[in-house]
Amino acid sequence: MDKIEKVISLINNFKYNEAQRVLNDIIRKHPNDFNAINLSGIIFAKKKEYKIAIDFFNKALEINPNSSDVYHNRGNLLREIKEFKKSILDIEKALKLEEKFIYYNTLGCIYSEIGENEKAKENFIKSYSLNNKYCEPLNNLARINIKNKDINHAIELFKKSLSINNTDHTVLNDLGTIFLSKRKFDEALRLFTIGIKFKPDDYNLNHNLGNLFSNEDYIGFNFETASEFYNKAIFINKKTPNAYINFGVLLKNTEKFSHAIKNFNTALDLEKDYSYDFLQKKTISARAELLDCRLKIFDWFHLEQDLKIITSNYQEHKNINPLSSLYFFDKPLMHKEIAEEYVLNNTFIIKSNPYPEKIIIKDKINIAYFSSDFGNHAVTHLILGLLKNHNRNNFRVFAFSLKNKKDKYQDEIKKNVDLYFDVEDLSDDEIINMSSQNNIHIGIDLNGLTKYCRPNIFYNRAAPIQVNYLGYPGTTSIKNMDYIIADKTLIPPSDKSNYTEKIAYLPNSYQVNDSERPRKIDKYTRKDLKIPDDIFLFGCFNHIHKIQPVIFKCWMNILNKKKDSMLWLLCDDQEKISNIKKCAETNGINSNRILFAEVIDIESHYARIPLVDLMLDTYPYGAHTTASDTLWMGVPIISIHGNSFASRVSSSLLKAACLDELITNNIIEYENLINQIASNRDILNELKKKISSPHKLDLFNSKKTSEQIENLYAIMIKNYNEKKIEDIYLFS
Asked: Taking the model in full, what pTM does it have?
């Protein structure tokens, strides 16, 4: 083996310093040795010592100005340091000297990186035409199709690549990732398993197997198996944040919050010196997940600092879970842009679904409700009021259940629709096909961007008309979501720009209620639940993670002022209870004054609400179903009217219940009003009189609200047929 062959062997085995010592010896004896100088440039480029590498390539071109390989090498280096114009010039010079398939592939990669996808495609196609055994152009074409959301074409290209080289673990990983996103879990598992046989120590394959087994929709979901793969990925590459983040999400979802926080903190430390590339795109914010964990367990260490970082620089943190963003801040434009980012990263083209020029109603309007929450869930407790009252002479009602809850509330949904489909195990395209086959005219998304949502169903149009309603208090930012049902309290005309949907306005509150839900006022006494009779009882039965420090401090101020009062919160988790008590003590309040209600069946939960004197709403994500439950049971609730949909729902409900005086505009007004009511029983009693007969209020008139929603649906079809794209204002 001569010295140059030895150098090439050393480079291939990543022994760059040893290779350079051999080359230095050659160059010392032969200063103009072309091969030694070119290889030196390659070594310094691999070591990321770019200036030295360029000097070597420049010298090599002085010796041999007709070397296409050196132009290609220098072009690749310039691409690495993002000097794309110079890089393109070098690759084009290489191609003028010699048309090599690898040069065209490199040129395609450069154009792809600068977003000129058509030019990139041309070069990849040319590269493949020169050597149809070279798979990289096919793989790169597939990745362009992924960027363009054309997943089906990407699948075809990756499969073609594997037909040429079926041992390419990178392609097996990429194709498996696509099938994972399409919920083709068995096919994803097959591809990842094949890939890991060829490359057991591949970070991406182990990471993606962790993602597969941590997916709660996968029948093979297994915490231990997912953990093993995540830990192996981390062992292989301790410097990449994504495995820590996704493992943290698994830990959070299984309520192992302290371990999740540890993973998110590690990811944040790594991100300081890490650059994400296209295939390892940062799709989850470690800081936002950390913040969400802290809220869920009342661990407020660094909470306000993290909130400030995200709020003040959210353009760099738009990869927040959209639902979490509603808890974090009261800024609807931010909510919209975060939702847009989520949709960008989680949707793709499944199929072209042509819909008719006009919707011809032969006998009835076919409406379908899509939800993962048909069961013991707030959405179900509300939507039953609509399903029970739909006019079956004019409407045929379908339910597409995205998650099988298997409880009595799901049975209630089944009883109150014409056709019920359990589609949990179906892929998005199968659900879209089922909707099309059943000639659904209007599809109503009751999930929005909440847990278990299926945005691809609506991105690819499950129905000619699609509506965002009830389950998600904000815009979905899905381009094919036509309407959001709201009212003028939630979305005044000045706020419409923060919603990608057109607004379908109901005249009173947007929220439908079930007027047949139980109302047993005298089921419990305070003595039954070991609550003192002689105290003023404040309550908040919102989820604990809706409580932020500013609102909690306000409550502690109120307890401090009214010595004969206690606060009742909904929580039965001992870690959370311990943290809440610590926060109370920190604010100077004896923690014995904080009471905790355990999670019980919904009927019993309703029955204990009247034991509360005054309910306190949270901010910026306020009470929704909890607020209507509270009013239904005859208890007033005080809210802060914020800037976003999520912070205005209580205001909407209070207006519909003729309790406008309980709506405040800021934390100071909120605290003052609570103190005023708590110090004057006459005021409290007058408020309770107003809601002593909730059946008489429009808010709880399920039949009337249902008729109004049906009127909206009819107008939507009329607008569709007349090609009108505009807001709908229903006045009665």
From this structure: 0.92
